[in-house]
Automatic annotation (TrEMBL):
Residues 1-25 are annotated as: Disordered. It comes from the Bacteria. This is Putative cell division protein. It comes from Staphylococcus petrasii. The chain crosses the membrane at residues 34-54. InterPro entries: DivIC, FtsL/DivIC. Residues 59-93 form a coiled coil. The keyword Kinase does not apply. Residues 1-14 have a biased composition (Polar residues). GO terms for biological process: cell division. Keywords: Cell cycle, Cell division, Coiled coil, Membrane, Transmembrane, Transmembrane helix.
Length: 131
């Protein structure tokens, strides 16, 4: 017996070979399409992942900035309340009189102001005058 195998040249085998070739072409086309669509899908996933990371980073920065702005806003509100309270006090005659007596040593007619040794404000002003 010989080791050679020969194709039979009949219609059935030639048709079968054509079908195999068409099937192989179709498979190549399908593989190419799958490769292209898989690559596109992979590219879309990578782009979306990058966008997700960038957006997360942006959101974190915005949250930090928002927290900082809220702290500044709270400080401004506290400052506004203090200024309103001071404004109300400055409209009160008793408060103005108290400040004038304590800070500027002003007195009403007939009153005498005595300086005590335990008075911190007067000792501070004396030490600053010495320097």
């Amino acid at each position: 017996m010989s080791n050679k195998v020969e194709n039979i040249g009949n219609q059935y085998t030639s048709e079968r070979n054509r079908k195999k070739k068409r099937q192989q072409k179709k498979m190549r086309v399908v593989r190419r399409r799958i490769t292209v669509f898989g690559g596109l899908l992979l590219a879309i996933i990578i782009i979306l992942s990058i966008m997700l990371v960038v957006q997360k980073h942006s959101n974190d920065q915005a949250a930090v900035e928002r927290k900082h702005k809220e702290e500044q806003f709270q400080k401004k509100q506290d400052e506004e309340l203090a200024l309103k309270e001071e404004l109300n006090n400055l409209n009160d005659k008793d408060y103005i009189e108290k400040i004038a007596r304590d800070d500027y040593y002003l007195s009403n007619k007939g009153e005498v102001i005595f300086k005590l040794p335990n008075d911190k404000k007067s000792s501070d002003s004396q030490s600053s005058d010495s320097n």
